Amino acid sequence: MHKKEKTKxxxxxxxxxxxxxxxxxxxxxxAALILLLLSVLVSLPAAAQDTPSLxxxxxxxxxxxxxxxxxxxxxxxxxxxxxxxxxxxDTRVTIISKNPLSIDEAVSxxxxxxxxxxxxxxRTQRTLRIVSIEQARYMNLPVSSGSDPAAVVGGDxxxxxxxxxxxxxxxxxxxxxxxxxxxYAVLSANEASNSLIITDTSANVxxxxxxxxxVDTQMSSVADVRVFHLVYADAEDTADLVxxxxxxxxxxxxxxxxxxxxxxxxxxxRGGSSPRDSSRGSNGGQSTGNTNVRITAxxxxxxxxxxxxxxxDTMDVIAEIIKELDSNPESEQMIFVYxxxxxxxxxxxxxxxxxxxxxxxxKNQASGRNxxxxxxxxxxxxxxxxxxxxxxxxxxxxxxxxxxMTSQKNYAKIEPVLDELDKIVPQVLIKVLIAEVTTSDGLDxxxxxxxxxxxxxxxxxxxxxxxxxDNMNGFMTRTLEGDLDxxxxxxxxxxDLNVLSRPYILTSNNQxxxxxxxxxxxFVTDTRVTETGQTINSISYEDIxxxxxxxxxxxxxxxxxxxxxxxxxxxTGETVLISDNVEAAVYAKRSTNSRVAVAxxxxxxxxxxxxxxxxxxxxxxxxxxxxPLLGLLFQRNRTKTEKTELxxxxxxxxxxxxxxxxxxxxxxxxxxxxxxxPQKYPSLQEHMNNMQSPVETH
Length: 698
Prior knowledge:
The chain is an alpha+beta fold. Among the domains are: 55-140, 2-Layer Sandwich (Ribosomal Protein S8, Chain: A, domain 1), CATH 3.30.1370; 333-363 and 388-423, Ribosomal Protein S8, Chain: A, domain 1 (2-Layer Sandwich); 426-454 and 474-656, no CATH class; 659-689, no CATH class. It is built from 16 helices and 29 strands. Strands 18, 19, 20, 21, 22, 28 and 29 form a seven-stranded antiparallel β-sheet that branches. Strands 23, 24, 25, 26 and 27 form a five-stranded antiparallel β-sheet that branches. The chain has a four-stranded mixed β-sheet with strand order 8-9-11-10, with helices on one face. Strand 13 (296-300) and strand 14 (305-310) form a beta hairpin. Helix 1 (3-24) packs antiparallel against helix 2. The longest helix is centred in the middle third of the chain and has 25 residues, at 345-369. InterPro entries: Bact_Secretion_Sys_Channel (IPR050810), GspD/PilQ (IPR001775), NolW-like (IPR005644), NolW-like_sf (IPR038591), T2SS/T3SS_dom (IPR004846), T2SS_GspD (IPR013356), T2SS_GspD_CS (IPR004845). Residues 490-654 form the Type II/III secretion system secretin-like domain. This is Putative general secretion pathway protein D. One of its GO terms (cellular component) is cell outer membrane.
C-alpha cells in the first residue's frame, strides 16, 4: 500500500475513534472538537505529497538558433530557477532534447552550451548565475577531493578538486602538467600537503586525475616528468608502445644489462651494435642508480599529448624516440619523374631552384628571430614547415623531364606548380611585309615627308597613332588604320611600290624572334704580318640588310606588346685602310628600339627610313637634237630626284591552341591569292608548311 493510502486509512480510523468517544461522552462536546481538529492536522502532510518537488520535475529543451537569453528565460520559468547574468546573452544557440530532462541535467546541458562562449553557470540552490569561466574560478564552486577518476562525473560544469600526491613532487607535477590545461583553468600545488588543486570543468579534472594516477608511481620521486605534444602520431598508441616496451624489458633480469633498452634500440637504429652485443660491454656512461624506477606513459587524448615519467638519464633517449615516432610519415625521401609537355626542363629547373633557395633563406631568417622551444615539448616538424627543405631537382634535356627528390608531401605541394608552369604557351604568328615606296619629285616633298603622313587618293587616313621609339634615327612607328591590302593598293597610287619580302615567323609568348633579309658579308677584324712577310687577315661574317628582332608578350587583356628592334645596314661604297695593302669596306647601319601594344590582328608599320636618288636625263627633239653642236639647241639636261622609303609591316596573330594555329594558316593561305606577282616573292605555302616550328627564335 502506498504512503498516501496509508495516511488516508489512518485519518479514517482516527475520525471513527473520535465519533465513538463523542457518543460515549456526549456530554463533553469540547473534547470531541479537539479530536476533530487533530484529525485535520494529521491529514495536511498527505495533501502536501500531491505537489511534486523541484528535483522531481522534468522539462524538454528544444530550441533552434535562438538567443541564449530566451533559453534561460524558459529554464527559469519551467524549473523555478532565478537566473542572474552579468554578461551579454545575445549568443544564438541550438539545443535539441527529445526526451525530458531533470533540472540538474538541464543545467548541465546549459553549461555545455555556455562553454563554447567561455561562459559558465554556477548554481547555488535556486540561483543560477551566468559568468565568464575566469570569474567562475573565484565563486562558490563545488569542492571535491581524491585520486580516483571514477569518483568524478565528467561534464562541463566548473568544479574545484584536490588531488593528493603520494610519491611525486606536487610542485614539479604542476609545472609539467600545466601545458595540458586550457587557459582559463587554474592548477596550483600545495607543498605542505603535497597535493594539486585544480579548478576546471569536471571533464578536464577527471582527465587530469587519470594522468596523475599514471605518473604518481612509487619511485617517481627520483624520476622526471615531461609532456610531449604530438603532431602526427597518436597519443594513445605512443603511450601504449612505451609502456609495453618497458614492461617487457623490466620483466626480465636487467642485472646483466645496465644499458637502457631504448638506448640500445637507438644505437642499433644508428648502425651501432645490436642490443645483444651492447649488453656485453660497459654501461656506456648511463647511470645505474635508477634501474628500478618504473617508466610510465599516459596519453591525453584532448591535446594529443603523452606524459612520460622516467629517470633523467632515460628521458632524453625517450624524447628522441618519441621524436622519431612522431615524424611525418610522408617525409621519406623519394624520387619523382615529371615529364614536361610544353615547357623546357632546364628552364623549369632554374625557376624551381631559385624559388626554393629564396624560401630557404627566408625561413632561416625567421627561425633566427623565433628560436625558442618550450620545456618538454616535442620537436616534431610542423605540417607545412619543410617545403623548402630536402628538395633537389635535376633536368633531363633528352626526355624533357624533371627528376625531383623530395618527400611525398612536398611533391604533392609542388606538383600543382609544375602543372601551371607546363601549361600550353600561347604562340604568336607575326606576318611581316617589307616594301619600298618610290616617289618622284612631282610630289610636294617637305622636310617631314613620309608616306606615313600621307593620305590615299580618296582622302582616307592610312596610318594612325605614332609610337615614339627609344632612339629616333629617322624611324617612325604607327598603327595601320585599315586593311593591309587596302593600304598596299593606296601606296601603289602614291608611288611605285616594290615588295622586298613577305615572310612569316612563329614564336612563343615572351620569346624573341629574328627576321633577316639580306646577306652575310666578310669583315676584316684583324691583320698581322708573319716573320716571312706574309700578311694574314682574320675574317668574320656579319649579316647585312634588313634585320628585325621582335619579342611579343600577350597580356590578360588580349593585347600583344611587342618589343621591336629593326636594323638596316647597307654598303656605302667607301673603304678604309686598316693596314698596308688592306682596305675594309664601310657599311652604314641604322637601328631603333620601340615597344608597341596592339590588339590581336592589328598591324603596325615602321617607316621613315628614306633614301634620295638623283638621275640625270637628257631630253631632246628627235633628229634635230642629234646634230653635232647645233643639236644642243634642241635638247636639255634634267635631273630627276626620286625618294625611296622603306616600310616594315608587322601583324601579330595570337594562337592559343593548335586548332587556332591551323585556322590562321588556312586564312593566310587563302589571302595569298591577292599577291600580284606570286613568282616575285617567297612562296607563302612554304611559310605555311613551316609554321609548326618557330623560325630562328632566341
